[in-house]
């Protein structure tokens, strides 16, 4: 993880902690973690964003990508199907 990625993650982590009901904060955290290769932690952030807003289609896409990178193929397919629907 680069210093820039670590700083970005810290910013989104603070945003998500300061406002736990802000789906964009959780989504941003998930995306930053995904880009840093922290797939397991990113899944939790995307799951929280989807719990707050089940219509957040891009969160389904990134969550599916995280599960795929974690080699959880069935979970990835399930998430991507839900997002498509």
In short:
The chain is mainly alpha-helical and 85 residues long.
Task: Report on the architecture of this protein.
The structure is a single chain. With 85 residues, this protein is mainly alpha-helical. It is 80% helix and 0% strand. The protein has helices at 3-18, 23-35, 39-52, 57-69, 73-84. Helix 2 (23-35) packs parallel to helix 4 (57-69) and helix 3 (39-52) packs antiparallel against helix 4 (57-69). The chain is flat, with a radius of gyration of 12 Å. The termini are far apart. The model has no long low-confidence stretch (mean pLDDT 92).
Order of helices and strands, N to C? HHHHH
Q: What portion of residues is helical? A: over 70%
Low-confidence stretches: none
- Number of extended strands: 0
- Evaluate the radius of gyration: 12 Å
Strand content is: under 5%
Please state the overall shape, judged from the principal axes of the Cα atoms: flat
> What's the N-to-C terminus distance?
34 Å
Structural class: mainly alpha
Given the structure, what is the number of helices? 5
| Major sheet description | none
Mean pLDDT: 92
Task: Provide the fold topology.
Blueprint: H1 3-18, H2 23-35, H3 39-52, H4 57-69, H5 73-84
Helix pairs in contact: 1-2, 2-3, 2-4, 3-4, 4-5
Could you list some keywords that capture this structure?
mainly alpha; 80% helix; 85 residues
């Amino acid at each position: 993880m680069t210093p820039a990625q670590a700083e970005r993650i810290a910013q989104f982590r603070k945003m998500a902690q300061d406002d736990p009901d802000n789906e964009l904060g959780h989504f941003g955290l998930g995306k930053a973690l995904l880009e840093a290769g922290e797939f397991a932690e990113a899944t939790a952030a995307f799951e929280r964003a989807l719990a707050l807003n089940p219509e957040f289609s891009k969160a389904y896409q990134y969550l599916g990508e995280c599960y795929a990178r974690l080699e959880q193929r069935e979970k990835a397919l399930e998430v991507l199907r839900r997002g498509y629907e």
